[in-house]
Amino acid sequence: MRLHTRPTVATASLAAALVALAGCGNGEGEGTDTTTTSSSSSSSSSTTPSSSASSTTESNPDGATAIEVVKNFEKTTNDLRLDPMKETGALGAYATGQAYKQRTFTIRQSREAGESHRGRITVVEATASRQSATSQEVVACTDVSARRSVDKNGEALPSPFDRLERVYTVEKSDGAQQDGKWRVTAEEATSEC
């Protein structure tokens, strides 16, 4: 049981604010403009996603889009974990490349091992930083406390954190014969948030 949730949330908020400030005023044309979104979250085991408020800045209008892609990526992953009959191809609407391969492999591996899942992972706070005209980096704090996983014998699979920070690369496919949509191309779990 974790007794210091409030300071962690404050620390995560402070870290997000520092990330946002770090992207300001770098003097480069392709700099890192930021967009932040957050949601209120409680520690109840409700599986209903929290509502969120998004903000955009004129200097990074695609930031809100990138954050929404990350939220849909996580929502679709949740749906696939909760319903083992759903095809993993649905993830292709929000991910491609390494991120798609990594997530679909993990989901298939979990299914083959006979694991089952209850509850959802939710994005509670996210910041998007513009890397280029077609690339955003999204740093998100995900709440994993409501998710419960069990192995084929019904034994609980431990989760080391209640909240986990993940860094996503979200890119727009704008080349010839591409659809122009934003998708997660890479992700990495970095630390507790």
Number of helices: 3
Strand percentage: 25-35%
Number of strands: 9
Q: What order do the helices and strands follow?
A: HEEHHEEEEEEE
SS-derived structural category:
alpha+beta
Q: Output the radius of gyration.
A: 17 Å
- Our measurement of the CA-to-CA distance between the termini, rounded to an integer number of angstroms, reads 16 Å
**Model regions low in confidence, pLDDT < 50 over at least 5 residues:** 1-32, 39-56
Overall mean pLDDT stands at 77
Helix content: 25-40%
Q: What about the largest sheet?
A: 6 strands, antiparallel
Essential attributes:
single chain, 193 residues, alpha+beta, 6-stranded antiparallel β-sheet, 3-stranded antiparallel β-sheet, 3 helices, 9 strands, globular, disordered N terminus
Annotate the secondary structure layout:
Blueprint: H1 5-22, E1 34-39, E2 52-54, H2 63-82, H3 97-112, E3 116-118, E4 122-132, E5 135-143, E6 148-150, E7 156-157, E8 163-172, E9 182-192
Antiparallel strand pairs: 1-2, 1-4, 3-6, 4-5, 5-8, 6-7, 8-9
How does this model look, in words?
This protein has a six-stranded antiparallel β-sheet. It has a three-stranded antiparallel β-sheet with strand order 3-6-7, with no helix packed on it. It has helices spanning 5-22, 63-82, 97-112, and strands spanning 34-39, 52-54, 116-118, 122-132, 135-143, 148-150, 156-157, 163-172, 182-192. The protein is globular and about 50 Å long. It contains three helices and nine strands, in the order αββααβββββββ. A hairpin with a 2-residue loop joins strand 4 and strand 5. By secondary structure, it is of the alpha+beta class.
